[in-house]
Design goal:
Distance between the termini: 59 Å
Radius of gyration: 26 Å
CATH superfamily of the largest domain: GAF domain
Strand content: 15-25%
Number of domains: 3
Mean pLDDT: 84
Low-confidence stretches: 341-352
Number of helices: 16
Amino acid sequence: MLLDDRKKRILEAVIEEYNATAEPVGSGKIASDYNLGFSPATIRNEMANLEEMGFLEQPHVSAGRIPSSSGYRFYIDSIMKEKTLSPKEKQIIDDVLKEDVIKFDSLIKEASNILARITNYTSIAVGPQMNNCTVEEIKLVKLGQDRLMIVILADNGIIKESIIKYDGILPEENIQIFNTYLNQKLKGLNFEQIYENINAYVEDELYNISTNVIPLVNELNSLLIDKNVDIHMEGTKNLLELPELKQTNTLKNFLNILETQDALKELINNGYDGNVNVYIGQENAFEDLKDFTIITYKQKINDKELGTIGLIGPKRMDYKKVIPIIKYVGDALQEKMKQGGSFDGREQSDES
């Protein structure tokens, strides 16, 4: 829906005022503080028109108006001019992400932490779903007489690991045979493909060597099919201090989001790769998120999903500041992943 210049300027002023105060905005406030060159009567009429068009809402009959989800969407898509990050903000982000980080999940959590610090909203970091990854290497490491560590390095650099405890002594020669065999059979295969056909790859000759292979195969299966997406959240206290969460229902919804995280997982999985995705209020399919905005940046290199960073905040979010910050952090993280080196996790698996 197109708006003329006057409606755009008034909508922008209402959004900026509401973002600053968290209070419904009246036409008199816009007329006195924003120097738009329109009379209070004109502003009042245009605000009524914007409400009729669905861009503004009136929470109470006697109150001013607040932006709707549609109003914020139009503002982001057609009005807003993004702020430029300050040299200090860029330096803080660069200093965090230039550190040598061996494991990907550590790096993405650092990116999430810095987002919470700079924006004062709650940050989200999610590792990738692994079922579409392929095996680059499997390493079996003996830990004492009765423990065996399995380390799986995926082609996107992510490491999966687990430890098996045996009842008796585990012969060293068996471990070496298992290690060589598993790499010959499974390297380059898709995680889900292996899980669905594990017995086709681990043939009788391996079982004939030792029954010790049975718990190994079972644990390997568990690592391959683990589809749980862990969400790391930072700065939840930031939201608890906002005026919106003084309302009981809004606070209850936020606490439910923290507890279940189902809505966040679904949104994150549906986001577009390599772009900033913004979900405002009623654009979210989940009722608990109707008062919130989720912004995500999904990482992807060479068709491999590498996780997502993002923010959760009120609809009254400083979008023109927050969106370029997420872009900068996301792009820096993407560049870090392209550099490879020790970041791909090989050094950790060798040390194990």
